[in-house]
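4.2 Preliminary Data

To establish feasibility before requesting continued support, the project team ran the inverse folding procedure on a target of 358 residues. The structure was first converted into the token representation described in Section 3, and no sequence information of any kind was made available to the design step. The complete token record follows.
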């Protein structure tokens, strides 16, 4: 049963800070290379569409049956993603999310069903992860130089304490059609969940056109359904961290669901000569310091995978794997060990990877 939480004033949800995602690079050229459509002996075709949104790229690959026109996919996917960006961007001052961030304390703001759904899902992961995931960490993200304003001086202890007093996912209250900030300075940042939700929305748009074999990728967050053109599960590579040549350390097979990856090696900055991770632990107000380089999560939907990838990345290998087992999360972790990496998997991950045990 999904646990209850103080945000939900209406129906239960249907069920990182992480920029950009560590894209699944296994067999990259084969999967994503822009090329003419390819066909099978059954007259099926593979078509690829792409674009830019949310400060990153998106790609959609569909398998079209004989006589099925895939051309509407480009517009449908783009419109679905732009709609999410218009509502949930922290870079657009007129987005619904930024209007909520400016809304006076204790004054409800009417919000869309889509935004409410994402806020409810975020609250659920916050609760189940013990606060390792928290969309109200935005002010601390900014303070450490990873927000829209860019880098500055690292915050001192007093600033961190002040900002932590303003945040907390429980301080946002949701009604059936509105949201209310209950603390001055509370600022929401959906960077760790919005791209996943965008991938879900693009996938729904593709399915609405009658396509039931596809791969949707938004900034590294991936949704798939059905088999690829060869009749095999979609092959998703997990990138090997800390390498100048982007290569896959392992390749996963998936024919239903989503995968999201979060890590500390693509997005960071230097502070006093030291490397500072972009992943901020909401429980301490400081960047993570453990040896977990990346974590990939498989889930039924990409919004859930996206949020949990961030939460486990914050928790680290020991606590993260314990919580993944407790909460039924399919997680694959790469932990720095000397000059290489140790791979850790939850039992739920082994059962979802269709390529077999890694």
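Position-by-position output of the design step:
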């Amino acid at each position: 049963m999904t646990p209850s939480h103080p945000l939900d004033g209406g129906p239960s949800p249907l069920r990182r800070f992480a920029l950009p995602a560590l894209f699944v690079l296994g067999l990259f050229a084969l999967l994503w290379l822009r090329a003419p459509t390819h066909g099978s002996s059954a007259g099926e075709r593979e078509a690829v569409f792409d674009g830019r949104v949310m400060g990153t790229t998106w790609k959609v690959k569909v398998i079209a049956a004989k006589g099925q026109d895939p051309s509407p996919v480009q517009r449908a996917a783009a419109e679905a993603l732009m709609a999410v960006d218009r509502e949930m961007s922290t870079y657009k001052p007129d987005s619904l999310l930024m209007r909520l961030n400016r809304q006076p304390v204790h004054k409800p703001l009417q919000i869309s069903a889509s935004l409410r759904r994402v806020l409810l899902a975020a609250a659920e992961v916050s609760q189940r992860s013990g606060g390792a995931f928290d969309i109200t960490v935005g002010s601390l993200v900014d303070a450490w130089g990873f927000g829209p304003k860019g880098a500055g001086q690292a915050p001192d202890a007093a600033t961190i304490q002040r900002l932590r007093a303003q945040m907390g996912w429980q301080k946002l209250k949701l009604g059936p059609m509105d949201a209310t900030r209950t603390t001055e300075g509370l600022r929401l940042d959906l960077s760790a969940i919005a791209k996943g939700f965008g991938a879900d929305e693009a996938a729904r748009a593709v399915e609405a056109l009658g396509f039931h074999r596809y791969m949707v990728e938004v900034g590294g967050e991936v949704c798939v359904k059905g088999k690829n053109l060869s009749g095999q599960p979609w092959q998703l590579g997990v990138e090997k961290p800390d390498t100048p040549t982007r290569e896959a350390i392992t390749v996963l097979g998936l024919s239903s669901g989503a995968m999201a990856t979060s890590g500390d090696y693509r997005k960071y900055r230097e502070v006093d000569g030291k490397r500072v991770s972009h992943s901020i632990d909401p429980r301490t107000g400081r960047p993570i310091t453990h040896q977990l380089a990346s974590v990939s999560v498989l889930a039924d939907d990409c919004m859930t995978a996206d949020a949990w990838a961030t939460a486990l990345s914050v928790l680290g290998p020991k606590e993260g794997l314990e919580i993944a087992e407790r909460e039924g999360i399919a997680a694959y972790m790469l932990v720095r060990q000397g000059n290489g990496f140790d791979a850790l998997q939850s039992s739920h991950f082994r059962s979802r990877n269709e390529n077999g045990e890694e």
